[in-house]
Design goal:
This protein is α+β, with helices and mostly antiparallel strands. The protein folds into 4 domains: 214 residues, Serine Threonine Protein Phosphatase 5, Tetratricopeptide repeat; 80 residues; 90 residues; 131 residues, Histidine kinase-like ATPase, C-terminal domain (Heat Shock Protein 90). The chain contains 22 helices and 7 strands. The strands form 2 sheets. It has a 5-stranded mixed beta sheet, with helices on one face. A two-stranded antiparallel ribbon has the order 1-3. β4 and β5 form a beta hairpin. This is histidine kinase.
């Protein structure tokens, strides 16, 4: 069953300004100069709002809590607990997130702050949903709904009813889910298009699960018509895929299959990795059932590829538990060793008092220590293996967080005009290039990257995003780089290749691009060439864009030589010395 979780609703219950790391870094520099607690509290609050690192956000939230307790202001303490809860959720620590949210709730209840209390209930409910604790989530949403009804906040009532219906649908309590979706539709007097679309679509999925295909088809088609013009590709792809399954189940196999494939293509185009994973699994089963084993195998492979790229909260929790258990085991091993050492000393003193048996007992003691040393070495080897696992999972988690940021940027770009959307999309590709690095670190090791494999994947990813029909020629020789050199080089390739796809178009409207990476005796040579109109070297503005400034800065960081040739199109050449 798909989790059609509505990001817009979660953001409404947890409003936050767009993050700006530069603002956070600037405030961190002046923070030590602020002696007044009120000013430090305000600065820390803005730092958290703009902080890109969840670990840093949690550290700042702890400082916020200390100041609030020192001032003795209950509302500031509650706000600090809320920021602590959000930071823990970003880190995947859902239990700690829930505890912090409960602390905030307790204060808001005591102080009679109904608006903040309702938002805190909704925030805690979303944490319970992510952990699969549906009864607890329903309880928190019910408390939030009661407050919104008291203050007559119709929009938030509708959104809370939608969330409650979705939780019941995930918990397979379809009658309750349908009741809340219908109530949201009736209450939506302002005819908000988003509320109308989500209520209709989710109600259609619930009816489909119950076997009411005629009603389900009408509702799903209505939801798609309402949400598609709004650019909500996430929900539209889910509703369209459900509609395709409905057609297949009703006997219209070709038409249903075409609808499912269209939803799958949308998910790939918009970078909706969770949907690509789920749709690929469903399509693999569909084609297998209908005897098309080649296509079934292809989609099964795609399912496994995308499955690995998504956040696995259970793995994160197991890593946290392993880290805690490792610390406990390490402490116990130290205590055991000290006890054994004390016992050995006592035995040595006793042996010295025995004249005739000194040499024999000493030999036995040395043999005992020899065995203990071997045992300790085995323990240390096992700890090293656990440390390696922790490092792999850390890279896995970093990669997943970057992919989540990429998905958020993709959703944000759908609400912006073309120019701003292009800028956000360029930022998304930069994040994707870093995510691929951490995926390689997770799969291959902790320090070095096989650049030929990595660049092939990066080029393919950018090509699919810009123009799958582009004439793309690559000649990449095997090359291994340390991660400190691989990351700047990956960002350089991302920027130059993005420009090539945007501006290197030929007469038929598709780019012609060639990428080379050759390993010489003393250096590596990277060439990115397109046959577009070229960048005039005499045009200072063209050579001072943010992307090219970033490229030149990264080239200096690598001590590499970067040259531009506009004789036949645009050709960038980077000479990277071996080292």
């Amino acid at each position: 069953m798909y989790r059609c979780w509505i990001l817009a609703l979660l953001l409404l219950f947890n409003p936050a300004a767009a993050q700006d790391q530069k603002v956070a870094d600037s405030l961190k520099q002046i923070l030590p100069e602020l002696s007044d607690d009120s000013l430090r509290y305000a600065a820390l609050y803005r730092i958290i709002a703009n902080e890109g690192s969840p670990e840093q956000a949690l550290a700042s939230a702890n400082q916020l809590l200390e100041i609030g307790e020192r001032i003795g202001d209950p509302l500031r303490i509650a706000m600090a607990w809320e920021e602590t809860s959000l930071a823990h959720r970003r880190l995947g620590n859902l239990t700690q997130s829930a505890k912090a949210a409960m602390n905030a709730q307790s204060i808001y209840t005591k102080e009679g702050k109904t608006d903040q209390l309702a938002a805190s209930h909704a925030q805690l409910a979303s944490a319970w949903v992510l952990e699969g604790q549906y009864p607890e989530a329903i309880s928190e949403y019910t408390a939030a709904l009661k407050i919104y009804r008291t203050v007559s906040d119709t929009l938030r009532q509708c959104l809370t009813l939608l969330n409650m219906g979705e939780v019941y649908r995930l918990d397979e309590q379809l009658d309750s889910a349908i009741r809340y979706f219908q109530e949201a539709l009736l209450l939506n007097k302002s005819a908000d298009e988003i509320v109308e679309g989500y209520s209709t679509g989710n109600l259609g999925m619930a009816y489909y699960t119950q076997g009411k295909t005629d009603s389900a088809r009408t509702l799903l088609e209505t939801a798609i018509r309402r949400l598609e013009p709004l650019g909500d590709h996430y929900s539209v792809s889910i509703y369209r895929f459900e509609l395709g399954k409905l057609f297949v189940d009703s006997g219209s196999i070709p038409e249903g299959r075409e609808i499912m494939l269209r939803a799958h293509a949308t998910a790939i185009r918009e970078g909706l990795k969770e949907q690509v994973r789920d749709f690929s699994r469903e399509l693999a089963g569909h084609f297998h059932t209908h005897g098309d084993f080649a296509r079934a195998y292809s989609y099964q492979q795609q399912y496994h590829t995308y499955k690995d790229s998504l956040l696995n909260i259970d793995n994160v929790r197991r890593v946290e538990q392993m880290r805690g258990q490792y610390q406990v085991d390490q402490r116990e091993a130290e205590i055991t060793f000290l006890n054994q050492l004390n016992a050995s000393r006592e035995r040595v003193l006793w042996i010295l008092g025995v004249g005739a048996l000194v040499l024999a007992l000493l030999s036995l003691l040395l043999y005992h220590f020899y065995r203990q040393k071997n045992k300790a070495n085995r323990v240390l080897a096992r700890r090293e293996e656990e440390k390696a696992l922790l490092l792999r999972e850390l890279n896995h988690r970093t990669k997943n967080n970057l992919q989540m940021i990429s998905s958020l940027l993709n959703l944000q770009s759908a609400t912006l005009d073309d120019h701003l959307a292009d800028l956000v999309r360029e930022g998304r590709y930069r994040v994707d290039s870093l995510a691929l690095i951490h995926q390689r670190l997770y799969q291959q090791g902790f320090t070095y990257i096989e650049m030929d494999e990595y660049l092939g994947e990066l080029i393919s990813h950018i090509g699919e995003g810009f123009d799958p029909e582009a004439n793309l020629e690559t000649e990449i020789e095997p090359c291994t780089l340390h991660v400190d050199r691989a990351i700047p080089l990956a960002l350089i390739v991302n920027e130059l290749l993005t420009n090539a796809f945007k501006y290197g178009k030929n007469g038929n409207g598709h780019p012609e691009i060639r990428v080379e990476l050759k390993r010489m005796e003393h250096h590596n040579r990277l060439v990115i060439h397109d046959r577009g109109p070229g960048i005039p070297e005499s045009d200072p503005a063209a050579l001072k864009s943010f992307g090219l400034n970033l490229v030149y800065s990264l080239a200096r960081q690598l001590n590499a030589e970067l040259t531009l040739d506009t004789t036949l199109g645009t050709q960038w050449t980077l000479i990277l010395n071996n080292g």
